[in-house]
Amino acid sequence: MRIRRLYTIARTFLHYGLDTVIPARWLPWSVRMARYTLFWMPNRHKDKEPGVRVRLALESLGPVWVKFGQMLSTRRDLLPPDIANELALLQDKVKPFPGEQAQQLIEDALGIDYIHAEFDNFEVRPLASASIAQVHTATLKHGDDAGEDVIIKVIRPDIFKVISADLRLMETLAAVLAKHLPDGRRLKPREVVREYRKTLLNELDLAREAGNAMQLRRNFEDSELLYIPKVYGHYTRVSVLVMERIDAIPVNDVETLNIMGVDMKKLAERGVEVFFTQVFRDSFFHADMHPGNIFVSRQNPESPQYIGIDFGIVGTLNREDKRYLAENFLAFFNRDYRKVAELHVDSGWVPAHINVEEFESAIRTVCEPIFNKPLADISFGHVLVNLFNTARQFEMEVQPQLVLLQKTLLYVEGLGRTLYPQLDLWQTAKPYLERWMKEQLGWRAVVRALKENAPYWAEKLPEMPILLHDYLSSQKQQQNFQRQAFAQFEANQKRLQRGMWWGFITGALLISTTLLWIDQQPWWLVAAGGAATLISGAVSWYRSRRKTV
């Protein structure tokens, strides 16, 4: 089966002429020779651009490769712009598998004999179908939520087997590319496939997705910006997820949004605010915010609210990365390239041995032409892409958390400009970032830290007298131990000094005895000197071997 699948992949690549996408001089002679021997598999799409051919090839290979193309579309640091733009158009439309089979999978996962024991109105026909899972609708039958409309997401049958096989082939292909491509070190094909494997396997675990959804729901509880549907955890398994069903408008259905009178300017600005709130307030962000996963509530069109779904991919930032990223953004707003360069070095993203002046000059060269345009015409996401590309020329290692952030920011900015083309993301984001930075520094940060730690100190306060007594007692014991140790050290030093003196005496006696013998002095004098040398040497040896206490 693996050989058959490998043959299918090779035939597809040649059918769409993907061998011509890689310059011939990069390919080893054995690969070029193999291409000539497969003359019955010609390129049937010579009239199409390379990016289009890559996209069509991945679509024909199936869902695993489609998702791989979607991920690659975010890695504009690795691909030419024309190919990256085409891969961004990949649509994950997959033929559904039979609803009866989905019902059986749900029953097996939940350990029930018949689906109507837990759900009413189960719809055998799927509501939606994607590469990894498909969705059915139903109504809860029991408990406090009885009568609530829900969706049931179920993983496709045998998907693990298909994905595992294709991932192994991808890893083999990546190893070949890493070995033979001259730019293999920068492109890092092995690392890209490894990153994709991790992302894809995370998406296969619906229990993980449920946990992500619950966290995001807590973060935006009672928020006017974003609503996260409720997850019914007691029905959730690794292969099944039950979630509140929403009635909303797809965010890319601009015509319907306009008909409903949605304030498009506010909607676009709120999208930006949602992104920065997730990143800088919560350090936990939805990292797959493409239009298929974002909806708009039908309520309050003058104060529109987003609704998010599909939480298989999330990103996180630690405190240091978050602060450096905010400072980078603000430095860019102020066109302070020196600050940007220094921040990259201080954060450890760029090695300390890099010349800051040269790095600053490179950043200015890339970014200054961008700032000659009106702010509303500048792509914030692409500025970030250019920054990372420039930094990599100065040995900046790929930061996975920043790749996810970059991808999400590109989604958010593209979405915002679709909703409201005049969106000035810079002016929308700058006040938020400045406010966040003020909260991280100065007295506000001190007050917040006290508030955050107050419960901990309140819990520890009754224990303080005991802890203080234990600390003082331990200090007294430590002092006694140190005194004893010092006394032992001093005694050992004295003992060693005495041993050294005996050693010097032995050496002097040995030299004297030798001189007496050379000068042919009386034998009894030479014998006395030798005896004294032996006695002194024995004492010295005894003292050096004596155990110190």
Would you write up a description of this structure?
- The protein is an alpha+beta fold and 549 residues long.
- It folds into 4 domains: 1-92, no CATH class; 94-245, no CATH class; 250-440, no CATH class; 464-545.
- The chain is built from 21 helices and 11 strands.
- It has helices spanning 2-15, 29-37, 50-61, 63-72, 81-87, 99-110, 159-180, 184-187, 189-203, 206-219, 254-259, 264-282, 319-333, 337-346, 356-367, 380-393, 400-419, 425-440, 442-460, 464-518, 523-545; strands spanning 119-120, 128-129, 133-140, 149-155, 226-227, 240-244, 248-250, 284-286, 294-297, 306-308, 314-316.
- Strands 1, 2, 3, 4 and 6 form a 5-stranded antiparallel β-sheet that branches.
- The radius of gyration is 36 Å and the shape is elongated.
- It starts with a helix and ends with a helix.
- The relative contact order is 0.06.
- The model has no long low-confidence stretch (mean pLDDT 79).
Characterize this entry briefly.
The protein has 549 residues and is of the alpha+beta class. It has 21 helices and 11 strands. The longest helix has 55 residues, at 464-518.
